[in-house]
Amino acid sequence: MTCDEVRLRLSLHVYGELSFNEEEAVETHLAGCEACRVALERTRLMHEAWDEMEAAPAPTMLASSRRELMARVAVARESKGWATRLAERLGLKWKLVSPIWQPLGAMALLVAGYLGARVGPLAPGRPDEASLAAPLASRVRYVEPETAGRVRVVVEEARQRVLTGRPDDEAIRRLLMAAARDPGDPGLRAESVNLLRGQLDSEDVRATLLYEVQHDPNAGVRLAALEGLKQFAGDPQMRRVLTQVLLSDRNPGVRSEVIDVLVEKRSDDVVGTLQELMHGEENQDVRDRCERVLASWKASAGTF
Amino acid sequence: MDETELIRAAQAGDERAFEELVRMHDQAVLRLAMNLLRSPEDANDVYQEAFLRVFRNLNSFRFDCSFHTWLYRIVTNLCMDALRRKKVRHEQKRPAAEDGAISDRIERVEEDRVHGDPQRALLSAELRERIGKALGELTPRERMVFELRHYQGMRLRAIGEVLGASEEAAKNCLFRATQKMRASLGDFV
Ligand SMILES: [Zn+2]
Q1: A80 closest CA partner among A63, A59, A94, A61
Q2: Are the C-beta atoms of residues A36 and A61 closer than 8 Å to each other?
Q3: Percent of chain A predicted with pLDDT > 90
Q4: Structural domain of B167
């Protein structure tokens, strides 16, 4: 091995990750080359400099992360049973629903109120205002410790009003569109989007779903909106938006779904987009999917 | 209980077993996320999401690989997503606050080193800045392989298994990462 070849391998040598043959050649060279031994010493120093860059968590952080996690797991344990039963009763697709029902807790009642629009009795004509005796919805707004081991809990309670009607009733649809953008509750947004899917001949509804697929912070909601927009996969404007989503969405599940929608129709644009995606894509599933599509179209996977 | 028993108990719904399982691994996960993302908020987000996914999907864990590998697949995916988002944000706000966080950290470190030789401290500040910048410029995949090998001490074979790559691919990735890191130090080494 030449000096240059040895220098290139010094870091891997320090890590002990060279192959058996490489290791032999490097050791032999080092034994007879003073300059490379100096370079090895400098490499060790460089590795030590890297060590010093480590950013460690503050000592209290682990405990507080654990506390938060256990609280969230406890919530997930409870809502899991509840959400499973509800989804079964409604025949919802569990795959789509499961990731977003987790943090519901007290909000579940409100969601159930909206679901009523689909499962309740469908009154013809105007939406029905029913059951003013509906249960109170309560939500913990604020908690703080008080003196003498007591705790103060501020609970917000609201008397619910239940509206039932068809999703194509103007009033119901407006409520669903507002709920689809509710910033506090991804479960509510997702179910509202699901219910709006049958109303896509309304331009407002299409705009709402387009907005959600691009901007909703929750991947489950973005997937629900995408599901609704599938039927417009041939529309040029829609394809432009979906291409943007494919290249910018941070969730690999969403990216995979967008690929499926876009490739239903082959076009040179899609080939180019997939090749572009392959450049920066880190997720193996998404890469595999891209590669399969490109291979089946006899297109190259790009430039590497 | 050993780990296998803990996993089976947690799969059967035992809350204490789940918590125990978390405690066996979560310190390393937090350290990894913190060093990669350099922000307590981002690191906590990854920690929460990773272990919630473990909780939700534990029943689908079939002992085909070690629990460590399974967990690290989840964690590294989340971290690389976060790194990619960070990169996008960083590129958008450039050059206004370039490496501000790193400079701040260096200043704090320098304040701590009141007894040190000032010349040496100065050199070390510039070194730190260069290394920090080079770390930030690695691709998320290179950064991850470098992290797992250099800071977490994992072997390349195990890293490949976590990232769904061959040992050879992980080795090439580590090679690229260390070459870039070395080049950034220029005449310092
Ligand atoms: Zn030599």
Answers
A1: A94
A2: no
A3: 22
A4: 119-189
Q: Indicate whether A219 and A238 sit together in one domain.
A: no
Residue of A nearest to B74 (CA): A283
Same domain, B97 and B125: no
Provide the number of CB pairs (under 8 Å) joining chain A to chain B: 112
Please judge whether B52 and A76 are an interchain contact, meaning their C-beta atoms are less than 8 angstroms apart. yes
What burial letters (b/e) apply to A142-175, b meaning 16+ CB within 10 Å? Answer: eeeeeeeeeeeeeeeeeebebbbbbbebeebbeb
Over 90: is that where the pLDDT of A39 sits?
A: yes
A224 & A249 share domain: no
Q: CA-to-CA distance for A172 and A198, rounded, in angstroms?
A: 13
Q: Does B41 touch chain A (CB under 8 A)?
A: no
Q: Quick one: pLDDT at residue B58?
A: 94
Residues of A with CB under 8 A from a CB of B: 8, 11-12, 15, 17, 42-43, 45-47, 49-58, 61-62, 65-66, 68-70, 72-73, 76-77, 98-99, 102, 248, 250-252, 280, 282-284
* B182, pLDDT greater than 80: yes
- Chain A residue with CA closest to B50: the answer is A69
Inter-chain touch B31–A15, beta carbons under 8 Å: no
Structural domain for A16, as ranges: 3-52
**B61 φψ region: left (φ > 0), alpha (ψ -120 to 50), beta (else):** beta
C-alpha A143/C-alpha B17 separation (Å) is 29
Which structure tokens are listed for B132?
Answer: 């920090």
Residues A248 and A202 in one domain: no
The ipTM, to two decimals, is: 0.83
Do residues A99 and A188 share a domain? no
Q: A245 to chain B nearest CA, in Å? A: 14
Scan residues 78-107 of B and list those with Cβ closer than 8 Å to A.
80-81, 84-85, 88, 105
Q: What is the CATH number of the domain that holds B155?
A: 1.10.10.10
Ligand 1 (ion): residues with CB under 5 Å are A 3, 33, 36
Return the residue of B nearest to A43 by Cα: B189
Q: Does A250 lie in the same domain as A210?
A: no
Q: Judge whether A195 lies within some domain.
A: yes
Shared domain check, B172 and B139? yes
pLDDT band at B118 (very low <50, low <70, confident <90, very high): very low
pTM over 0.80: no
- Distance, in Å, from the CA atom of A49 to the CA atom of A42, rounded to the nearest integer, reads 10
